[in-house]
Design a protein that fits this description.
Chain A: This is Oligopeptide transport ATP-binding protein AppD. The complex is a heterodimer of chains A (328) and B (303). Chain A has 328 residues and is α/β, with parallel strands linked by helices. Chain A has two domains: 241 residues, 3-Layer(aba) Sandwich (Rossmann fold), CATH 3.40.50; 71 residues, no CATH class. Helix content of chain A is 30%, strand content 24%. In chain A, strands 6-7-8-3-9-10-12-11-13 form a nine-stranded mixed beta sheet, sandwiched between helices. A four-stranded antiparallel beta sheet of chain A has the order 2-1-4-5. In chain A, helix 3 crosses helix 4. The longest helix of chain A is centred in the middle third of the chain and has 18 residues. Chain A starts with a strand and ends with a strand. Helices cover 69% and strands 0% of the residues of chain B. The chains are: A alpha/beta (328), B mainly alpha (303). At the A-B interface, helix 2, helix 3, helix 4, helix 6 and helix 7 of A face helix 8 and helix 9 of B.
Chain lengths: 328, 303
């Protein structure tokens, strides 16, 4: 599979009184064509900022990309101007948000919101775009699409709105779909349907998905590969099967053991002690050291780099240094 | 677009629990607006006043400037519905023609100042930073000058006339609208659907004017309605002071000024009464309609 998106050493900083706050600090990963990659981590680990950096939208929320490159096929997105970005947003890269209740404009009809993208990116005539929009709505499972076109968002349920969002996001057949916690705000039965729909459609269009979530259930269901982030850094990068079978990084292990097991006999859930340090107050050594059960002396003073484990996975931990791992 | 399969997959087809007829915004709006009896009354009276102003030449029994010194200070009666003034002019006819001036000045200056205020307020609220600072300081400066003095000064520099009055009301009236719209934009710009619009590649000007602005329209319409009333008042006040519409063109304000004489007020009560009554009624009706609109357009006020 050829690489679609390559993120290298991405550093996105925010500034408070000229003081830099590293929200994303040297993130590397890639997504192949047609692949679904999950980006996992606690709140504040930099998942959403990474996705906004790819979309070129961090500037508007006050962030700045300080270093690194984001390559979509052969285009370097970090050198793009706002105008260049407008041409690829929605067309080559699109995004679905967490809150379907608020991500549709309340004063525009569903039809207006779908046709807008088509008219803009595909240069369609109004009539043509309407027809295509109806097709798209049918594709995401609305049987009375014609009628939905005339509805305002407040008349639809959360699941229906999220399906409309999916229709909008996929309307121009993008190469990459960034889904920022697409199912968090939906109830469980709808979650599965929306996830299924998203996967089906992306397979059909050969669209890659960057799935941002903190729900490991969603990850195991939908993703091919998982990237675990902690404090703005990638700490582990592995296929889903490997990660769930044998988590390498103590943080990943912590995440996995803190999922309740339905038929398990543990009466108290395992929690990772402490909380995520704020990005303006990071520990000097390994960022996970203060919460890590396996922390060694050097973890407190030295920062581990991303190592390639013998299985080909990458992990950011000193534990694996001796096991014949080499620095990547 | 042949790569798309357009039949819906049955397993994901959900119940679409939507009643047959889509509830349009207009329908919801009318339902709420019609509940407010005062607003309806105001709208009806305003409609009558506006229509009679538009068709003034057809309705008015006399030309507005026709003098008849023999008939001066005639009390209201069949011949002169609202009596006559000191030149024997028919007051009813003059009020109809005066309505044209007052309403024209009211509507035109409000449309102008709303346009200026909305655009500047939207830019300030959306871009923030230096744009916001510059626009808002200009607003502060204009607002810190007492309106009536500014109006009088400007009127003395330019010659008074309907067009000059409209221009001046536009230049002073946009500030409050700009503040209102800026506030709306500051809160609306960070909504998720604005971010969503950005992620599909919508250009900035489209985001401002076709995504955010419609969401801010409610407060703008309400303030516009209330503003018409206050501009009519200001125009009357200026005309009353002699800086506004100049005789012989009739305006409600300068008719009042004509009548400001103790003996006139005692002997010909109808002379000041009717222009005053019309100013009062029109402004009151605009306020009633404005209140009604505010309730009807407020999304939080759900029946």
């Amino acid at each position: 599979m050829s690489t679609l998106l390559e993120v290298n050493n991405l550093k996105t900083y925010f500034f408070r009184k000229k003081e830099p706050i590293p929200a994303v600090d040297g993130v590397d990963f890639h997504i192949s064509k047609g692949e679904t990659v999950a980006l996992v981590g606690e709140s504040g680990s930099g998942k959403s900022i990474t996705s906004l950096s790819i979309m070129g939208l961090v500037q508007s929320s006050g962030g700045k990309i300080m270093d690194g490159s984001i390559k979509l096929e052969d285009k370097d997105l970090t050198s793009f101007t706002e105008n260049d970005y407008c041409k690829i947003r929605g067309n080559e890269v699109s995004m679905i948000f967490q809150e379907p209740m608020t991500s549709l404009n309340p004063v525009l009809t569903i039809g207006e919101q779908i046709t807008e993208v088509l008219i803009y990116h595909k240069n369609m005539k109004k009539k043509e775009a309407r027809q295509r929009a109806v097709e798209l709505l049918q594709m995401v499972g609305f049987s009375r699409a014609e009628q939905i076109m005339k509805e305002y968002p407040h008349r639809l349920s959360g699941g229906m709105r999220q399906r409309v969002m999916i229709a909008i996001a996929l309307s121009c057949n993008p190469k990459l779909l960034i889904a920022d916690e697409p199912t968090t705000a939906l109830d469980v039965t709808i979650q599965a349907q929306v996830l299924e729909l998203m996967k089906d459609l992306c397979q059909k269009f050969n669209t890659s998905i960057l799935l941002i979530t903190h729900d490991l259930g969603v990850v195991s269901e939908a993703a091919d590969r998982v990237i675990v982030m902690y404090c703005g850094q990638v700490v582990e990068n592995a296929t889903v099967d490997d990660l769930f079978l044998e988590p390498l990084h103590p943080y990943t292990e912590g995440l996995l053991t803190s999922i309740p097991v339905i038929d398990g006999e543990i009466d108290k859930l395992n929690a990772i002690k402490g909380s995520v340090p704020t990005p303006d107050n990071l520990p000097p050594g390994c960022r996970f050291a203060p919460r890590c059960p396996k922390a060694m002396d050097k973890c407190w003073t030295n920062q581990p780099s991303l190592l390639t484990h013998k299985s080909g996975r990458t992990v950011r931990c000193f534990l694996y240094e001796e096991e014949g791992a080499e620095q990547s | 677009m042949s790569e798309l399969q357009t039949t819906p997959s049955p397993e994901i087809r959900l119940k679409e629990n939507i009643s047959k007829k889509p509830e349009t915004m207009t329908k919801i709006f009318w339902e709420k607006f019609s509940k407010n009896k005062l607003a309806i009354l105001g709208a009806v009276i305003l409609f009558i006043i506006i229509m009679s102003a538009v068709f003034a030449p057809l309705i008015a029994p006399y030309p507005q400037e026709q003098q008849s010194l023999l008939d001066k200070y005639k009390a209201p009666g069949l011949e002169h519905l609202m009596g006559t003034d000191k030149f024997g002019r028919d007051i009813f006819s003059r009020i109809l023609y005066g309505a044209r001036v007052s309403l024209l000045v009211g509507f035109a200056s409000v449309v102008g100042s709303i346009l200026i205020g909305t655009v500047l307020g939207a830019l300030a609220g959306y871009f923030r930073g230096i744009v916001d600072a510059v626009i808002m300081r200009v607003v502060d400066i204009v607002l810190s000058i007492p309106d009536i003095f500014l109006l009088i000064t400007l009127v003395t520099i330019f010659k008074p006339g309907v067009d000059k009055l409209i221009l001046i009301f536009c230049l002073t009236g946009w500030t409050t609208t700009a503040r209102l719209v800026r506030g709306e934009f500051l809160s609306l710009r960070s909504r998720e659907y604005v971010l969503a619009a950005k992620t599909i590649g919508t250009k900035t000007h489209k985001i401002i004017f076709s995504h955010i602005l419609p969401n801010a329209l409610g407060p703008i319409i309400v303030s516009a309605t209330l503003k018409v009333g206050s501009v009519i008042l200001a125009e009357s006040a200026l005309s009353y002071l002699g800086f506004g519409i100049q005789p012989p063109i009739a305006s409600w304000g300068n008719m009042l000024q004509d009548a400001q004489n103790f003996t006139v007020m005692i002997q010909a009560w109808w002379y000041p009464l009717f222009p005053g009554l019309f100013i009062l009624m029109t402004v009151l009706c605009f306020n009633f309609v404005g209140d009604g609109l505010r309730d009807a357009l407020d999304p939080k006020n759900i029946k």
